[in-house]
Amino acid sequence: MRKRMIQIVLAILGVGAGYSFMPFFWLAVGIEENIWANNFVTNIIIGVIVMYLVSLFITDPLEKFIQRMENRLVHQSPDIIISTSMSVIVGLIIAVLISTLFSHSQLFILNTIIPIVLMVILGYLGFIVGKNHLGDFKKILFARRKNEKQQTNANVLDRKAGDNFHRVKLLDTNILIDGRIYDLVKTGFIEGTLLVPNFVLYELQYIADSADSIKRVRGRRGLDILNKLREEKKVPVEMYEGDFEDIQEVDSKLIKLAKLLDAVIVTNDYNLNKVSEFQNVQVLNVNALAKALKPRVVPGEKMTVTVIKNGTERQQGVAYLDDGTMIVVEDGRYYINKPLEVIVTSALQTDAGRMIFAKPAHSGREIKEKN
């Protein structure tokens, strides 16, 4: 069907080319209009024949080119297609308006070449602007709609979202495999729309189909968490059908999509977090949230722990809180696997986490704070 359409278009071009240019050809070779050569029917037939011969060489390349363009358009978001089309049209209109200044010029370069160059340049610039500034267009459009709504419904109180609110939250592969995003959504602390791009879903499927049993379990867990999120219906969960074929890494695609949609990335990946911050993309790091929610302890506070192993220093014992925080207990090696009431002497915050130092509550030593 595609090849047939190309042939029809080329045939129509042949008709136009024969009608327009063949009279000049006959005039150049010295043949005036007659019943056999220089006439309307003959010119059209010759134009169609010439274009048919040309089609034998260019039909297949044109078909492949059109097929690639169709595939790219199918994978593009409708928002991007609309915005780029509108911006290209605006660029072409501006080019036509500028070209009218040269339309009455007698110079061939001014009345023919310059308008074509302007159309190519401004059309391309319009395409780039529409593709890379979709988020800005949305902000302007939504801001205008919001102002109209506020003017129309002056007596209605609307919730105003600040600059820190992002309607779209992008989920990466690691956060779905981790699973804590499901518990976080159930508590109601996540608002907006959770968006799962196709390339993240494909990566999860690839991991779930891995020959490695550990990877296979992690991939299936991520798919299960995704299905639970859709079933929970606490927040909307949507799929993004587009892709960035010129980018290979999934993390780079996420950052590109976050910039495009003015979205925030939800992850627990340390490297993705740092790269996103460097590129001015906001990140919600679940690990940072868990770290911020750990309970604070102060010197002199009492707690009951169970020493489970010896420490690195002589007579020390090691215990853990429910959140995984390590507690080093003086003389704790004598109370292994026994509940023990201790008094906090100090707390240290390191890159690896938080450490608490304590001593048995019945010890007679004074509390010494460690800096």
UniProtKB/TrEMBL annotation:
Residues 167-274 form the PIN domain. Keywords: Membrane, Transmembrane, Transmembrane helix. It comes from the Bacteria. Pfam families: PIN. The chain crosses the membrane at residues 7-28, 40-59, 80-102, 108-129. InterPro entries: Nucleic_acid_metab_PIN/TRAM, PIN-like_dom_sf, PIN_dom. The keyword Acetylation does not apply. SUPFAM superfamilies: PIN domain-like (SSF88723). This is PilT family ATPase. It comes from Liquorilactobacillus aquaticus DSM 21051.
